Amino acid sequence: MIVAVAFDHAGFTLRGRLLPLLEAGGHELIDFGTDNAEPIDYPVKALEVGRAVAGGRAERGIIVCGSGAGVSVAASKIRGVRAATIHDTYTAHQAVEHDAVNVLCLGGRVIGSEVAAEIVTAFLGAVTSDEERHVRRRAEVDEIERTGGQE
Q1: Residue pLDDT, tens place only, 55-83
Q2: Is residue 93 annotated as a catalytic residue, yes or no?
Q3: Of these residues, 27, 65, 93, 105, which one is catalytic?
Q4: Is 105 a catalytic residue?
């Protein structure tokens, strides 16, 4: 799978654990950095990964900031991106299966590297469900995105 990844300065602590994990899993990476603790604005990283996923260059994305919240909010503004902050393995697979989440957002200051590795593995191993109820609900979400929630 082609996976776009990015880390801001607060999330880069997980980089050393996650990149080797992804490579060992046979994934092709589009790496948007950062590789140091110099401050960088998280919306920049969210935009890079979000554009790669929405544009079809990557099948999924992973963005890490301090809490996971900021990158999730920013990435979700991009049409075609379904981003979620996830800090447990159950949600990691269910978000893909039920909700077609395609961008995983993690908090480098919230979870440890081994938990992050387990979450990433669950996220990338999940397959989107074709069950009617999930397809219907995703279509409802698509309609919200299309209309901006306006009547």
Answers
A1: 999 999 999 999 999 999 999 999 999 99
A2: no
A3: 65
A4: no
